[in-house]
Amino acid sequence: MRYLIITLSMLVFNGILSSINAQIAETYFNKGNAKYSLKNFQCAIQDYNNAIKLKANFEEAYNGRGLAKSNLKDYHGAIQDFSKAIELKPNDAEVYYNRGWVKNRLADFVGALEDYTKAIKLNPGDLNSYNNRGLAKYNLKDYQGALQDFNKTIELNPNYTNAYYNRGNVKDELGDRLGAILDFSKAIELNPKYAESYNNRGSVKNELGNYQDAIQDFNKALELNPKYTIAYQNRGLAKANLKDYNNAIQDFSNAIKLNPNYAEAYYNRGLANKLLGNKNEACLDFRKASKLGNTNSDDYLNKLCN
Question: Which of 24, 60, 144, 279 minimizes the number of CB atoms within 10 Å of its CB?
C-alpha cells in the first residue's frame, strides 16, 4: 500500500512539474516571438532553445526558431527545425511553406516545389504558396506550370503585385512580349515604385525594338534605385542599339563601377569601343570580360587584339 501511495504521489508530482515546465516554455516562446518581431533573431533563438528544452514536442517553437535561423541565413539549420516541426505536426501548411521558402533560397527548386505543393494541398487558398511554387517552376524552366500558378495567385488576389511581375517574366520567356509588358505595367500600376518592373518592361521593349521607350523605363528604374546595376547595363544596350555609343559606354562604366566583376558589361563596353574605333580600350575590355568568364570576348581577342 505504501509503495502504491508513493508511486501515485510521484505521478502527481511529475504531472505538476510537467505542467509548470509547459507554462515556462510558453513564456520563453512568447518572449522569442517578441524578440523576433523586433528582428533580434539571435536572442529569439535563445528563447526558442529554452522553450524546446522544457517542452521537447513544442512544434511552434521549432517553427519559430526555423524562421529566426532563416533570417540569419542559417538555411540548413532552419530546414532541420522546420522538418522537426513537420514531424511533430504533419498537417501544418505554414511550416511546409516556410521550409519551401528556405529550399528556394538554397536553389533546391525540386524540394521547394514539393513543399509548396504540400502546403497548397493542406490550404488550397494559400496564394503565397501558389506564387512561390510558380517561382520554383520558373527556375526549373517549367514555364507553363509557372504560368498556371501565377494565374491562380492572381485569381485569388487580383492586386498581388509580385504575381504580375513574376508572370511577366514567364510570358517573356514564352515569347509573349506584349503580354509581358501588360503584366509589368499592371505591377507598376499597383506599385509605382517597383524598379524591377520598370527595368524588365524596358528589357522587353528593347527586345521589340522600342529603344526610346525602353530608355524611359530604365531611366525610371534608376531614378527609383540609383545603384541598380543591371538597369545601367540594359540602358547601355538600348543606347547602343540607337548607335549612341558614347553614352552607352558611360552606362556600361557605371554598371562596372557598381560591380567590378560584371563580365557582360565589360564585353558590351568593349563592343561599343570597337564600334567607335577605340581599339586599345576595346581590347582591354575584351580581355577583362574573358578573364571573368565571358567566352564571347574570345573571338574579338583573336581577331582584333593579336
Answer: 144
Q: Is residue 109 part of a domain?
A: no
Dihedral angle of Cα 5, 7, 13, 15, to the nearest 10 degrees: -120
The reported pTM is: 0.88
Q: Mean pLDDT of successive 10-residue segments in the chain (306 residues)?
A: 53 50 86 95 95 93 97 97 97 97 97 98 97 98 98 98 98 98 98 98 98 98 98 98 98 98 97 95 95 93 87
Query: ∠141-147-148 over CA atoms, to 5°?
Result: 120
- Look up the domain containing 285 and give its range: 228-306
* CA–CA dist 214, 196 (Å, integer): 13
Give residues with Cβ within 8 angstroms of 231, minimum separation 6: 195, 198, 199, 202, 218, 221, 222, 225
Domain check: are 275 and 238 in the same one? yes
Cα 136–chain centre separation: 10
Residue type, 86: I
Domain shared by 233 and 217, yes or no = no
Does 220 reside within a domain?
yes
Q: Is residue 183 situated within a structural domain?
A: yes
